[in-house]
C-alpha cells in the first residue's frame, strides 16, 4: 500500500528550506521539533483549556539548551541568531505560549543581565537561569504606558547606598513564577534597570485572569511597594531607554520566526483536511477556490520565512539595522493572521473546535500582534526610517 504524501511533504518539495540552513542550524531545529512534539503537543489543548502552565515543560526546554541559547558563556549555548529563530519557529508551530515563555526567560530577562549586568550578576544568575533552576521575568510595561515606556511612572530613588522602587508593572510574563525580575524604572539619572529577587519585601504579583489567548503561559501585574534593593542590584551597563529596547529587539526578532511556525502548521492542517474532505463527490482540495486559498497561504508563508532568514543572517553578521526587526515583526504577524484565518475557513465548522489547533493559534496570534510593539508602533518605526521624521505623538 502506497502512503500518500502529506501537505508537509508537499510543502517541503515545493520549498526546500533546509537547503538554506547549516548542519548546526538544522540540528537545533530538529531538536526543537522533537521537544515540542514530546513535551508540548500531547498536552497543549488541555493546558490551554485549563489555563495550566506545565512547569515540567519548562524544565524540558532548559534541558534542551533553549533558555538563553543565543548568549555566549555562563552555561549558555552561544548559538547563532538563525538557530534561535528556528527554535522559536518550532515551538510556536505547536503553541505561542511556550515560545513566549522561552522569550521572556532568554531574550528578555537573561539578555538584560548578559548585556548590561555586572560580572557578579552574570556568573551568579545566568548559569542557573540557563539550567531552568531560576525563572526570570522582565518588568517594563505599565498599566497606562504599554507603547510609551518613556512615560513610565515606576520610580527608583536613592536612599543612602540603597535604591527604593515604587510602581506597578502589567502584562509581565512569568512574574508570579519567577525567582528574579529585571525591573525598569525612572530615576533622577534617567531610566535604569534593576535585578530584583522576587522574595524581596514589597514585591507582589497578581495573575491576569480572563485571557482568551496565551492560556498555557501566565502573565501578571506586579506591584512594587517600597522595594528596597542594595546598590549592587543596579544593572550597571544600562542607562536610558536603549537598555530595555535592546532586550525588546531580541524578543521581537524571535516573534518574526515564531509566527511562521504557526503559519506552517495552519497550512499543513488545512491542506490535509482539504485533501481528505469530500463534498459533491470529490475532495474540496480539487476545487479552484480552495487551491487559490492554499496557494495564497503558502506564498505568504514562504515570503515570511525567507524574510526571517534574511534578518537572522544580518543579525548573525552583526549588521542588522534594528528597523528591520520591525519589518519582520509587522509583516510576519500580519501574514500569519491571514494564513490562520484562511485555514479556519477551509476547515469550516470543524475549524472552531479543538479537534484542530487553528482557533487556539488565531487567538494567540491576536495577542502576538499587540505585544512587543503593536502593529501601529512598528508601522511608525518603519515610517520614521523611510522619512527621517518621527510621527509617534
UniProtKB/TrEMBL annotation:
<dbReference type="Pfam" id="PF00441">
    <property type="entry name" value="Acyl-CoA_dh_1"/>
</dbReference>
<dbReference type="InterPro" id="IPR036250">
    <property type="entry name" value="AcylCo_DH-like_C"/>
</dbReference>
<keyword id="KW-0560">Oxidoreductase</keyword>
<dbReference type="GO" id="GO:0033539">
    <property type="term" value="P:fatty acid beta-oxidation using acyl-CoA dehydrogenase"/>
</dbReference>
<feature type="domain" description="Acyl-CoA dehydrogenase/oxidase N-terminal">
    <location>
        <begin position="23"/>
        <end position="133"/>
    </location>
</feature>
<protein>
    <recommendedName>
        <fullName>glutaryl-CoA dehydrogenase (ETF)</fullName>
        <ecNumber>1.3.8.6</ecNumber>
    </recommendedName>
</protein>
<dbReference type="InterPro" id="IPR009075">
    <property type="entry name" value="AcylCo_DH/oxidase_C"/>
</dbReference>
<keyword id="KW-0274">FAD</keyword>
<dbReference type="GO" id="GO:0050660">
    <property type="term" value="F:flavin adenine dinucleotide binding"/>
</dbReference>
<dbReference type="InterPro" id="IPR006091">
    <property type="entry name" value="Acyl-CoA_Oxase/DH_mid-dom"/>
</dbReference>
<dbReference type="GO" id="GO:0000062">
    <property type="term" value="F:fatty-acyl-CoA binding"/>
</dbReference>
<dbReference type="Pfam" id="PF02771">
    <property type="entry name" value="Acyl-CoA_dh_N"/>
</dbReference>
<dbReference type="InterPro" id="IPR046373">
    <property type="entry name" value="Acyl-CoA_Oxase/DH_mid-dom_sf"/>
</dbReference>
<dbReference type="GO" id="GO:0004361">
    <property type="term" value="F:glutaryl-CoA dehydrogenase activity"/>
</dbReference>
<dbReference type="InterPro" id="IPR037069">
    <property type="entry name" value="AcylCoA_DH/ox_N_sf"/>
</dbReference>
<dbReference type="InterPro" id="IPR006089">
    <property type="entry name" value="Acyl-CoA_DH_CS"/>
</dbReference>
<dbReference type="Pfam" id="PF02770">
    <property type="entry name" value="Acyl-CoA_dh_M"/>
</dbReference>
<feature type="domain" description="Acyl-CoA oxidase/dehydrogenase middle">
    <location>
        <begin position="137"/>
        <end position="227"/>
    </location>
</feature>
<comment type="pathway">
    <text>Amino-acid metabolism; tryptophan metabolism.</text>
</comment>
<dbReference type="InterPro" id="IPR052033">
    <property type="entry name" value="Glutaryl-CoA_DH_mitochondrial"/>
</dbReference>
<keyword id="KW-0809">Transit peptide</keyword>
<dbReference type="InterPro" id="IPR013786">
    <property type="entry name" value="AcylCoA_DH/ox_N"/>
</dbReference>
<keyword id="KW-0285">Flavoprotein</keyword>
<comment type="pathway">
    <text>Amino-acid metabolism; lysine degradation.</text>
</comment>
<dbReference type="InterPro" id="IPR009100">
    <property type="entry name" value="AcylCoA_DH/oxidase_NM_dom_sf"/>
</dbReference>
<dbReference type="GO" id="GO:0046949">
    <property type="term" value="P:fatty-acyl-CoA biosynthetic process"/>
</dbReference>
<feature type="domain" description="Acyl-CoA dehydrogenase/oxidase C-terminal">
    <location>
        <begin position="246"/>
        <end position="386"/>
    </location>
</feature>
<comment type="similarity">
    <text>Belongs to the acyl-CoA dehydrogenase family.</text>
</comment>
Amino acid at each position: 500500500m502506497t502512503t500518500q504524501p502529506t501537505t508537509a511533504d508537499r510543502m517541503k518539495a515545493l520549498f526546500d528550506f533546509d537547503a538554506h540552513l547549516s548542519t548546526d542550524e538544522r540540528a537545533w531545529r530538529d531538536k526543537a521539533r522533537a521537544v515540542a512534539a514530546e513535551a508540548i503537543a500531547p498536552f497543549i489543548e488541555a493546558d490551554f483549556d485549563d489555563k495550566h502552565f506545565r512547569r515540567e515543560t519548562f524544565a524540558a526546554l532548559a534541558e534542551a539548551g533553549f533558555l538563553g541559547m543565543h548568549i555566549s558563556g555562563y552555561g549558555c549555548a552561544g548559538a547563532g541568531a538563525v538557530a534561535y529563530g528556528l527554535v522559536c519557529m518550532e515551538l510556536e508551530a505547536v503553541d505561542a505560549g511556550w515560545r513566549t515563555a522561552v522569550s521572556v526567560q532568554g531574550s528578555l530577562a537573561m539578555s538584560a543581565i548578559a548585556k548590561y549586568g555586572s560580572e557578579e550578576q552574570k556568573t551568579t544568575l545566568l548559569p542557573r537561569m540557563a539550567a531552568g533552576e531560576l525563572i526570570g521575568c522582565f518588568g517594563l510595561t505599565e498599566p497606562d504606558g504599554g507603547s510609551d515606556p518613556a512615560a513610565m511612572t515606576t520610580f527608583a530613588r536613592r536612599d543612602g547606598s540603597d535604591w527604593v522602587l515604587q510602581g506597578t508593572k502589567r502584562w509581565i510574563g512569568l512574574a508570579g513564577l519567577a525567582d528574579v525580575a529585571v525591573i525598569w524604572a525612572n530615576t533622577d539619572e534617567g531610566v535604569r534597570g534593576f535585578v530584583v529577587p522576587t522574595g524581596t519585601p514589597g514585591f507582589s504579583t497578581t495573575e491576569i485572569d480572563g485571557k482568551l489567548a496565551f492560556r498555557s503561559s501566565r502573565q501578571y501585574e506586579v506591584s512594587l511597594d517600597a522595594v528596597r534593593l542594595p546598590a549592587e542590584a543596579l544593572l550597571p551597563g544600562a542607562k536610558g531607554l536603549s537598555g530595555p529596547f535592546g532586550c525588546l529587539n531580541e524578543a521581537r526578532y524571535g516573534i518574526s520566526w515564531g509566527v511562521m511556525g504557526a503559519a506552517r502548521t495552519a497550512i499543513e492542517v488545512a491542506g490535509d483536511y482539504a485533501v481528505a474532505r469530500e463534498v459533491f463527490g470529490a475532495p474540496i482540495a480539487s476545487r479552484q477556490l480552495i487551491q487559490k486559498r492554499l496557494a495564497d497561504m503558502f506564498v505568504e508563508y514562504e515570503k515570511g520565512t525567507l524574510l526571517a532568514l534574511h534578518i537572522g543572517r544580518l543579525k548573525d553578521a552583526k549588521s542588522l539595522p534594528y528597523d528591520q526587526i520591525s519589518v519582520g515583526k509587522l509583516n510576519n504577524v500580519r501574514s500569519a493572521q491571514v494564513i490562520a484565518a484562511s485555514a479556519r475557513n477551509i476547515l469550516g465548522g470543524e475549524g472552531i473546535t479543538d479537534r484542530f489547533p487553528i482557533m487556539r493559534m488565531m487567538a494567540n496570534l491576536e495577542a502576538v500582534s499587540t505585544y512587543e510593539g503593536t502593529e501601529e508602533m512598528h508601522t511608525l518605526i518603519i515610517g520614521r526610517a523611510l522619512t527621517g521624521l518621527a510621527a509617534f505623538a
